[in-house]
Amino acid sequence: MEQDYLKKGKLEETARQLEQQIEQEPDNPVLYINYGNLISAVHEHEKAIAFFEKALQLDPEAGTAWYSMGIALYELERFPEAAHCFMQALQKGVQEGDVHFMLGMCYVQKNEQIRALPHFLRATELDSNDVESLFQYGLCLAQMEQVREAVDVFQKVTSKDQKHADAFYNLGIGYVYFDKPEEALEAFNQALLIQPDHYLAANGKKNAESMLN
């Protein structure tokens, strides 16, 4: 029922319904998680955290509460705390690609790419269509100066998602690194075709053209 309301955008009705259910079942942690997710969806992250904490008081093993609290903390840019929550979610059995992806993003925000790598990789193992995890995996490799491996990954991303402008841009950067201006120019042009206002790709295109002249 709550999901139907959410799909229709009837947030107020959903909130009232959940509040009534919480009054009837004050010891049901799922209701606090649902309410927290609802108000987190409208960017009331601080308030949402209080509901996730209440759910965890009732059930410390509620992995979904840990995950949802991690999302709220991430949105508040409290990355170390968010990473702790995602780790707890994994330990409590929420072995889903999204958890690994978000944990990887926390490490990226902390400039700990080497710790992010295995989580992005695991996310792609759990979902072969998870292009964003694959892209972030490539970015980490590039930032760790494993450029050849990164180029291979960006090629995979662009083959899976031919509208991924950032992947084409990074692929172009890789080609420049290996002194392949023609391939680089093609990649930058593709990025600009997808996203004409891609400033970095436009700059990369100029550099590739100067290499050819």
TrEMBL record:
Provide this UniProt record's keywords sorted from A to Z. Answer: Coiled coil, Repeat, TPR repeat
Q: Which residues cross the membrane?
A: none
Q: Which residues form a coiled coil?
A: 1-28
Q: Any idea where the Tetratricopeptide repeat protein 21A/21B second ARM domain is?
A: 23-180
Q: Where are the TPR repeats?
A: 29-62, 97-130, 165-198
Q: Which Pfam families match?
A: ARM_TT21_2nd
What domain of life? Bacteria
Protein's UniProt name: Tetratricopeptide repeat protein
Q: Which organism encodes this protein?
A: Fictibacillus fluitans
Print the organism lineage. Answer: Bacteria, Bacillati, Bacillota, Bacilli, Bacillales
